[in-house]
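Duplicate of #3305? Posting structure anyway:
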């Protein structure tokens, strides 16, 4: 498998280069130069699905037996489809160690890097986070001596539980509390990768979805969900709604469709950070500053993975709109949805999944889809957003023990400006 840049198909890299560099030399994101003609649907287990999907992408660098071993270690939790009411299903992606969907990509990426990285000097992994990415990445790489992890999160703009998770790992994990937004954090990471002088001193890669190792494995759970849906509702073509911020999840869903997951449509359900939903409506991509919402992990004004979606369809906006829908939803509607769904079904949606619910309902209202079932990706456990849930239904959800445990740990973080010179100086000093 060869990897090209979203900016130029003339740039060709192998798996190792794409994993370690994170960004292509021209600043673009890596994408496969072709999608293998391999149908990964029909597998009975998550691991079989994962091996079948990833094998064509990692050969010849990783043998299938080694891939299976690392996937069995990474994906040691369930990803079930839950039927909460007639014709409506939830894909629960929050059963991993940090209770968020980012555990899938983070843990698979850690396994891939651990297998192929052989240098004597530690690899520095940068991860900007608007909520859950940082915890998932830190958990995945915790204690691995080959790697050191640096997390950047926007000060005061993640939930209190998310912040407690982000700042209590220690060991080979350092957390930076940035004075700015998630877009500022993401910009610092991208600037570091573009700084050739810095990269001659510090071995860097990224654990955000800009890195293929974090992004591509997300297609696994789409295919796994497709297989489960076919067992529940044979021959169905579900409409899939994805809570969307940086668009890596949507881009992975499009890859899954290349591998046999025949969804009727994928829709990007956005909060008031509506850059992508505006693009779908106006056919113009206009990044803007992010705004704070109750679904904070989606507070992204300049989504990086738009480049992948645009490149996968060669910039054909009509083709993109045939595959992807999009919608925008307010905090008020999000809270009301959490309340109404709980009252009707007893099921508690986290605020991001509630936005996904709203996105699905809008797609049905707009297009109908002849009674095809709906599937919503549930990206985080509701206990991570207890204050929001309490505001909606009058009480907080029960907190799992592994989440409660982080409150018994000491918070460790460093304050940082959103000035690149300060970040660069920190990275240089950290290797001396």
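Output from current build:
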């Amino acid at each position: 498998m060869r990897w090209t840049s979203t900016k130029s198909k003339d740039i060709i890299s192998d798996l190792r280069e794409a994993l370690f560099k994170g960004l292509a030399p021209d600043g673009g994101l890596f994408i496969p130069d072709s999608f293998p003609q391999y149908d990964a649907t029909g597998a009975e287990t998550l691991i079989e699905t994962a091996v079948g999907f990833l094998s064509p992408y990692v050969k010849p660098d990783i043998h299938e037996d080694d891939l299976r071993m690392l996937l069995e270690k990474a994906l040691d939790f369930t990803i079930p489809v839950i039927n909460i009411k007639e014709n409506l299903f939830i894909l629960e992606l929050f059963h991993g160690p940090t209770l968020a969907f980012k555990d899938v990509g983070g843990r698979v990426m850690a396994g891939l890097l651990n297998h192929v990285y052989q240098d004597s000097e530690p690899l520095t992994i940068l991860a900007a986070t608007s909520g859950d990415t940082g915890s998932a990445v830190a958990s995945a790489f915790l204690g691995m001596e080959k790697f050191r992890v640096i997390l950047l999160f926007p000060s005061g703009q993640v939930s209190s539980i998310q912040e407690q998770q982000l700042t209590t790992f220690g060991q080979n994990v350092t957390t930076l509390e940035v004075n700015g937004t998630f877009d500022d954090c993401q910009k610092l990471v991208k600037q570091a990768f573009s700084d050739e002088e810095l990269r001659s001193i510090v071995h860097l890669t990224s654990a955000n979805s800009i890195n293929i190792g974090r992004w591509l494995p997300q297609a696994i759970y789409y295919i796994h969900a497709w297989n489960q849906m076919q067992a529940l509702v044979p021959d169905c073509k579900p409409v899939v709604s994805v809570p969307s911020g940086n668009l890596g999840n949507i881009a992975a869903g499009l890859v899954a469709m290349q591998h046999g997951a025949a969804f009727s449509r994928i829709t990007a359900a956005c909060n008031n950070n509506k850059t992508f939903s505006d693009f779908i409506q106006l056919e113009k991509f206009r990044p803007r500053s992010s705004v704070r919402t109750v679904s904070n992990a989606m507070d992204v004004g300049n989504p990086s993975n738009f480049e992948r979606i645009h490149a996968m369809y060669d910039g054909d906006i009509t083709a993109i709109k045939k595959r992807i829908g999009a919608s925008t939803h307010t905090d008020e509607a999000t809270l009301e949805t959490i309340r109404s769904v709980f009252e009707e079904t007893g099921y508690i949606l986290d605020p991001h999944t509630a936005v996904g619910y709203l996105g699905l309902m809008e797609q049905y209202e707009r297009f109908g889809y002849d009674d095809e079932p709906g599937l919503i990706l549930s990206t985080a456990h509701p206990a991570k957003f207890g204050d929001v849930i309490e505001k909606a239904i009058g009480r907080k959800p029960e907190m799992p023990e592994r989440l409660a445990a982080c409150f018994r740990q000491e918070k460790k973080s460093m304050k940082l400006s959103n000035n690149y010179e300060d970040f660069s100086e920190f990275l240089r000093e950290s290797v001396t």
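Confirmed duplicate; merging threads. DSSP finds 19 helices and 14 strands in the chain. The domain at 79-99+215-397 is CATH 3.40.50.1100 (Rossmann fold).
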